[in-house]
Amino acid sequence: MKKFNCPSCGAEVVFNSNHSVYAVCKFCHSMIVRHDLDVESIGTMANLPGDMSPFQIGTEGYYQGTHFSLVGRMKMGWEDGSWNEWFMATDDGRKGWLAEAQGFYSICFEVDPPPLEFAVRAIQSQKQDNQFIGSALVFNSQKLHIVDAKKATCIGSEGELPLAAPQGRMIVSVDLLGAYGEFASVEIETGKLRAYSGRYVDWKAMRCSNVRTFDGW
Question: In terms of domains, do 200 and 102 share one?
Answer without folding.
Answer: yes
